Amino acid sequence: VPEAAAGRLGPPGKNVSNNSKMAEVKSMFREVLPKQGQLSVEDVTTMVLCKPKLLPLKSLTLEKLEKMQQAAQDTVRQQEMAEKQRQITH
Amino acid sequence: MGSEMEPLLLAWSYFRRRKFQLCADLCTQVLEKSPYDQEPDPELPVSQAAWILKARALTEMVYVDEVDVDQEGIAEMILDENAIAQVPRPGTSLKLPGTSQSGGPSQAVRPVTQAGRPITGYLRPSTQSGRPGTMEQAIKAPRTAYTARPITSSSGRFVRLGTASMLTSPDGPFINLSRLNLTKYSQKPKLAKALFEYIFHHENDVKTALDLAALSTEHSQYKDWWWKVQIGKCYYRLGMYREAEKQFKSALKQQEMVDTFLYLAKVYIALDQPVTALNLFKQGLDKFPGEVTLLCGIARIYEEMNNISSATEYYKEVLKQDNTHVEAIACIGSNHFYSDQPEIALRFYRRLLQMGVYNCQLFNNLGLCCFYAQQYDMTLTSFERALSLAENEEETADVWYNLGHVAVGIGDTNLAHQCFRLALVNNNHHAEAYNNLAVLEMRQGHVEQARALLQTASSLAPHMYEPHFNFATISDKIGDLQRSYAAAQKSEAAFPDHVDTQHLIKQLKQHFAML
Question: What residue ranges carry the coiled-coil annotation (chain A) (predicted)?
């Protein structure tokens, strides 16, 4: 069935050669699917990475609050600077 | 000059155009010209108008919607006597996040906050950090510059804003509250309302505001719902939740308003009664069907209770009513991302971009979604944009951290190493970056460095299970079984369902039994 599907998908002129090539490949490599016996998998504990972090968007209120806080801090700093300047000049 | 405008009219015009500083300055000039005392002269309506306009302009400058404002200090949380049940049943409290009841993504996929909740897609003043459940947790929480909370809310942002507003006027405050004759103002309802807002928002003097509101509501013979809501707001700020509840309920009887529902729900959330709050919101929805803020309130509560699927349902309901609701879009988007559907998350974030949201966080999220949805062409450009838009070092650190993941994904270990290093340069409290760097060091066989990094990570963020688990794994490998066991137990405490941790503990117990 898969070969027929491949044939339908491929361009119509090259169907034959494609199919024959695939048939050759198939005859060279055959998958091994054991139906008897034990299957063993070694479970190795690996270290875990922390996960990628989507950043939360900020609400407008929060942005406004932060902006106001920043502005307040700036004014405080400016006033302190002005104070210092005055002390130096006196 | 004949073309000059009447100053008061101009001030009004400034006010309407939201140029509050100009408006206030102009009002000051008007008040200086006309005989101006501490209180407006009743004989001079112009000066009275200028006075009240200035108060309103100053209020508007620092106005923050009271529904949104909430910041709990450590003292409020620890000494919280308001919660009804100290040991609440699961699903009835906001303090116990609960193991995800509804099949939301597990901790192995979605990072959690300190309080053990999955990180949200949207940040509001009250979501900045969940409330810790116990005293121990509250004190143990590491004080990094990023997570520090004020000791009490009365030393928090409100007061700082209040003093800030005073700083800007060099001649002292505009209205000297202690000299104010409140009884006189409560007789004039129009003046009183503006004055109340000024005292409450600008001066942040809740007690005086409460006095004024109490006198005014008396003057209106308890018939004005607005004053009742204001009294409730004051009680809420003062931490008297039961009194606030009474006022809001009484106001609702007189006049049903969406705002009042929201305030009352806030009281119930402060009392740690999310189920009552949910019922209240649903009552509100009966009166105001499809009201977005109420729907959104329900979704937020569900999200805080770790019931992600119900939260998403309500966020979708929000989007049906208002399809430009940023919070709903962001939350649904992040939910899709962490439930393994990055391509759908990408559509939500792209919608935000179309709506004009333009910041570092959005581009970072777009970059991550693009990468995991295999749209590699957009990934790096998004991250570049995010880096250029970052406003502070914490944001830059987060972007570099996520870029590190991209580098790990394409197998470029060197680049990943550099990215995580850069994240740490920008924010040396970035616990996740320490952990991931340790994993990379371990791959190169540098055991000692990895151990040191992991120890830093676990002391910075004890709520994350990854550093504990990794430390346990390394210690197990080099034969330090005792330390391995201690770390594994911490990891189990942080994430009880982690299979590998359980496995490791079982193995270690067998070892100890054999000795």
Answer: none
